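Structure in, sequence out. Go:
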């Protein structure tokens, strides 16, 4: 008892009851300042943690004795021990999965809580069994015959103090620890990191047998198993299936995963409880039990599941902004696209969650070496998704709360309820999903009639509609403004409690025996037998609105949601008119290219259509139509496959079938400020002319359709055989002496030299067509059998100085047209001399 003797003596000098003495004895029994001796263990593996913790049993011996002595069974039996011990590096653990419960705790013990906790149950992702005890949910029964009766655990609870006392009438309170903008919704994906503990207050009895004690059958010789929790957390990322804009989507909202990331080292007085144990309840001198914190200068990382990829060419994007309350320490988190994890590949769940099975975002916030303190805040809001619009614009909705009709105030008449800690959330609303209703109340006069007293309802003093009350309270909101994905419902959720004696002690760092007596023993004098010492939970509402197969327009106007027999809320649901969410400005630019100076028969030329979008929004169903015409019959050329690329993405996506007359390419969309490039190759077998017209269209409003079309044309030349300096094996050209160059065009089976339009024939160096000579120096070319193959060839003579040929050139070319307008082109090697 040595370390605890001063506390024990102080208790004696106060001359308080046996209950307090028992508390002191318990405190003296426990080592390490009231906390159990720590047991170090290895990092959890994929197997469940054994929940039979002797640490918790040691903690609970005195608590159970106290509660039995006082006959107070409704108090939360609170006590915690680290799963892996206080001194290990494995005190903090991650957990991630889907939120199956999200609520404010109603009966936390105020002596070791600054305020009420927010609790979220996380159904963990595959492979995370190692963070769970074998008695975690759904093993919620009080007793089983043996450990074999446990079913596989699925969930872990995360708890974090709100930092708001019910008496504070502001949205976030004076000292927010977990602010409302990050509070998780039912159905969110949630990642958390924090203190990995056994909750000693919720033991499950395993085994044992019954014995008769003073005529009563009592279970004896059982073992208690305890669940694991993340309590308190120091980091949380609430990941929500919503709709918002992205870089590249401009004013157009698209399906996204919106992540609210919050890291703070003061999760609540539970940390203090671990250090100071029973002293915080027993001893009003809490100078040695100052609020403790957890370090956050650490490496945090988590995965963000993405909405299903809407099209193969959809572009993945994200944006990050600094969140409310950020302390300015720590930079922008790193976001990487990686292969999707097992948690993202789960089948659609009861909340409508369905994610992309190919990719996800991995987020890393490295706060090491940033100088961030446990009392600082790291806050970021991250939006991830695909820059690709839905086929019809997403509806823009506004939901506003107008009135409450309370049917059950959880008090015996004629007493009224205190419900200032009633919260309401809408899961699809960005940034501020949750609000305290007290901030929007309009005090409402209740004229109950001649036989009753008149009354003005407020949430701090509200009567239900039984007997003399009408239960009505008006509201000026809150109002939620959000876009909704198609076939997606939105859910209105509530959580809260009817306040009683306990709430007056939050933040006091003490809750002595006299407090217990007042709240648990004397309540009958205050509320005629109502459970004054336990904040009565208000039945939660989880009301989905809309969804697959439901026409939202039929729900517009007055909307009533509630819990039958408990309360009804009246809302106004409106559609907000779209402004420029579906406006864009597309432009097309067509350009055809080929290898070499001219397009030649037998060789392909490539036409590219560049489609750009200057916004302001993201166009829907963008289709590019390319019309190809030619002087040649369809049998004289082939059109290859058309493909498109989006921005810098190197992947080429197919446009589908092509034909001799062109193709149609559905590129889906074009990012704001981005481009899509469509390419196709045409291979002609003969000389001719091709005309190409490209036009882009969209289902959205195109603000400037005059730039939606672009054309280009290609003249395909017939390749011909050119013989420079016939009879001169070296094709020598003297560049310093005046003279002429003989150039012959040789007739063959596909070309008749006699059909050349002489005036169009220009000859000169290969690299600079502008310097070529188009004037025959001997008064005109001559037909003759230059190559001795018994057909007429055409022989030209050009002045050397007029051809642009210089010393060092190695090749010269002749280009012109036939009498039918088609072109010919041929080159030959030369050797320049001085």
């Amino acid at each position: 008892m040595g370390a605890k003797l001063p506390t024990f003596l102080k208790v004696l000098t106060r001359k308080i009851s046996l209950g307090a003495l028992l508390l002191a004895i318990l405190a003296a029994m426990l080592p390490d300042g009231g906390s159990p001796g720590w047991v170090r263990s290895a990092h959890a593996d994929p197997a469940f943690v054994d929940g039979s913790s002797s640490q918790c049993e040691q903690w609970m011996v005195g608590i159970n004795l106290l509660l039995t002595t006082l006959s107070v069974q409704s108090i939360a039996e609170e006590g915690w021990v680290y799963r892996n011990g206080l001194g290990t590096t494995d005190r903090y653990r991650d957990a991630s999965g889907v939120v199956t419960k999200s609520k404010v705790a109603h009966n936390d013990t105020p002596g070791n809580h600054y305020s009420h906790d927010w609790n979220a149950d996380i159904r963990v992702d595959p492979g995370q069994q190692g963070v769970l005890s074998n008695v975690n949910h759904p093993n919620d029964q009080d007793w089983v015959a043996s450990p074999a009766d446990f079913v596989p655990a699925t969930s872990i609870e995360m708890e974090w103090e709100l930092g708001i006392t019910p008496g504070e009438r502001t949205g976030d309170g004076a000292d927010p620890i977990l602010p409302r903008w990050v509070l998780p919704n039912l159905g969110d994906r949630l990642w958390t990191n924090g203190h990995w503990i056994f909750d000693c207050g919720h033991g499950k009895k395993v085994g044992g047998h019954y014995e008769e004690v003073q005529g009563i059958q009592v279970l004896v010789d059982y073992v208690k198993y305890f669940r694991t929790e993340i309590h308190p957390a120091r980091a949380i990322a609430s990941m929500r299936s919503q709709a918002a804009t992205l870089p590249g989507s401009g004013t157009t909202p698209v399906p996204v995963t919106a992540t609210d990331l919050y890291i703070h080292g003061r999760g609540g007085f539970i940390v203090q409880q671990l250090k100071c144990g029973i002293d915080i309840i027993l001893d009003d001198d809490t100078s040695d039990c100052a609020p403790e914190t957890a370090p956050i200068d650490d490496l945090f990382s988590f995965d963000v599941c993405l909405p299903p990829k809407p099209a193969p060419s959809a572009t993945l994007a994200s944006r990050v902004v600094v969140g409310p309350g950020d302390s300015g320490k720590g930079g922008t988190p790193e976001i990487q696209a990686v292969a999707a994890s097992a948690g993202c590949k789960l089948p659609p769940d009861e909340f409508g969650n369905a994610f992309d099975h190919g990719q996800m975002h991995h987020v890393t916030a490295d706060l090491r070496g940033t100088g961030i303190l446990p009392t600082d805040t790291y806050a970021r809001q991250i939006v991830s998704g695909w820059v690709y619009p839905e086929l019809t614009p997403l509806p823009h909705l506004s939901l506003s709360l107008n009135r409450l009709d309370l049917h059950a105030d959880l008090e015996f008449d004629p007493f009224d309820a205190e419900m200032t800690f009633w919260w309401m959330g809408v899961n699809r609303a960005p940034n501020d999903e949750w609000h305290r209703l007290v901030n929007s109340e309009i005090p409402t006069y209740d004229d109950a009639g001649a036989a009753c007293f008149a009354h003005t309802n407020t949430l701090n003093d509200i009567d239900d509609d039984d007997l003399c009350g009408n239960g009505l309270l008006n509201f000026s909101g809150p109002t939620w403004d959000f876009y909704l994905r198609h076939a997606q419902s939105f859910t209105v959720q509530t959580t809260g409690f009817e306040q009683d004696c306990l709430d007056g002690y939050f933040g006091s760092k003490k809750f002595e025996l006299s407090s217990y007596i007042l709240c648990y023993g004397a309540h009958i004098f205050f509320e005629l037998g109502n459970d004054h010492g336990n904040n009565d939970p208000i039945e939660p509402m989880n009301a989905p609105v809309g969804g697959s197969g439901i026409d939202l327009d039929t729900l517009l106007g007055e909307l009533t949601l509630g819990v039958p027999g408990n309360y009804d809320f009246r809302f106004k649901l409106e559609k907000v008119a779209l402004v420029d969410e579906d406006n864009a400005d597309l432009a097309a630019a067509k350009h055809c290219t080929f290898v070499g100076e001219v397009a030649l028969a037998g060789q392909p030329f490539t036409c590219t259509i560049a489609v750009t979008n200057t916004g302001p929004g993201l166009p829907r169903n963008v289709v590019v139509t390319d019309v190809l015409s030619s002087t040649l019959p369809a049998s004289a050329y082939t059109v290859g496959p058309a493909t498109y690329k989006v921005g810098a993405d190197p992947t080429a996506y197919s446009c589908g079938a092509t034909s001799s007359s062109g193709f149609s390419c559905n590129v889906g969309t074009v990012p704001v400020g981005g481009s899509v490039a469509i390419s196709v190759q045409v291979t002609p077998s003969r000389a001719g002319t091709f005309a190409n017209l490209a036009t882009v269209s969209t289902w959205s409003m195109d603000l400037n359709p005059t730039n939606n079309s672009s054309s280009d044309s290609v003249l395909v030349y017939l390749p011909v055989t050119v013989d420079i300096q016939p009879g001169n094996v070296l094709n020598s050209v003297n560049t310093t002496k005046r003279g002429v160059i003989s150039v012959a065009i040789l007739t063959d089976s596909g070309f008749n030299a006699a059909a050349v339009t002489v005036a169009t024939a220009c000859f000169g160096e290969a690299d600079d067509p502008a310097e070529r000579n188009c004037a025959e120096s001997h008064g005109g070319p001559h037909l003759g059998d230059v190559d001795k193959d018994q057909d007429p060839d055409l022989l030209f003579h050009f002045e050397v100085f007029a051809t642009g040929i210089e010393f060092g050139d190695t090749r010269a070319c002749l280009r012109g047209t036939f009498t039918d307008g088609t072109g010919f082109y041929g080159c030959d090697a030369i050797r320049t001399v001085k």
